[in-house]
Amino acid sequence: MGLHYGTITSLNCASDIQEAREFVRKSGLDFEEGFDDLVGAYDNGKLVAVGARAGNVLKMIAVEPSYQGGALLGDIVSALIERGSVAGFDSLFVYTKPEYSTSFEALNFSLLASQERVALLEYGKGLERWFSSKRSLRKPGKNGGIVVNCNPFTWGHRYLIEAAARQVDNLYVFVVREDRSIFPFDIRYQLVREGVSDLANVILLDTGSYAVSSATFPTYFLKKNDPAAQIQMELDVTLFAAKLAPYFGITARFVGTEPYCAMTGSYNDAMKRILPVYGIDLIEIERKQVDGSAISASRVRKLLADDDFATLGKLVPPATLSFLRTGSAGSIFDKLKHSTERN
Asked: What topology does CATH give the domain 135-337?
């Protein structure tokens, strides 16, 4: 307390955090618990600005109205960028209202996607580096795309990918890189690769931070409904349509019909609204069924938790089943026994 205007300090003690909570809420934002850094600026003992960082996402950035338009926003953001850099992030994201985008662009952020209510910007050249790392994968022709988590890879995923691959010259299968699922990314990616290895026109790659990640669509990984989910899924779809699809020449995105998960169903609806605006067709493929029910990764995980390998053999390809039978899957079994996750 008592710090002068422009001095940025970490807010760590309970009273400082409570003061920041009240300030953020007064500014019309939700105070989100779960952050790695919380910083503030004081002017003669009065809190006049707040900002936070959670992983590679900056959030809850608020400045007292009478202090807006000066250097204070830059001071708060610079402090968070510095802390993010120390934590190992060379690329950081921020959500803001579209009308504030130019303020962040003036601080060297680049606009990734913008919807009516929210804009997503990135500090650093993360997307440019990600594109550069995938340059050799660009192919001419009629191209399609699928974004999958595959937690784990099932016959349902295989059916969707194979059906989509028949309709395009090249099919890009983006595997969600975010490591917040029961099956780690490297295992999910390996099982997808083995499961589609015979499909010559399928190109496998990871999403990086640019599709269904904690930056673009954090609500996907929550276990409860969140009012922010609709906004986030629209941004995620817009980012795919505006940046990823043009780079890879994708003019069609394929999805399976969604009979079970309300959030995934809403995501499909968002794609139906947004993708055509960017000249991208959304093609829904009826889910593959076994024993009268659509195959789903959540169904597979439940059977796995119940040690029902007899039924599992009907739902997953040999490579997935083989992995599940190995000792390497032991830690995954332990997670399943105590998990209620949906993705």
From this structure: Rossmann fold (3.40.50)
End-to-end CA distance of the chain: 44
* Whole-structure pTM value: 0.89
Tokens of residue 157, six digits: 């995923």
Kind of pairing, strands 170-175 and 143-148?
parallel
Strands (DSSP E) contained in the chain are 8-10, 37-43, 46-54, 57-63, 92-96, 109-114, 119-123, 143-148, 170-175, 202-206, 250-256, 281-285, 289-290, 293-294
Domain residue limits, the chain: 8-124, 135-337
Q: What pLDDT score does 4 carry?
A: 40
pLDDT at 3 exceeding the cut of 60: no
With contact defined as beta carbons under 8 Å apart, do 137 and 248 qualify?
Answer: yes
Q: Does domain 8-124 have CATH number 1.10.3490.10?
A: no
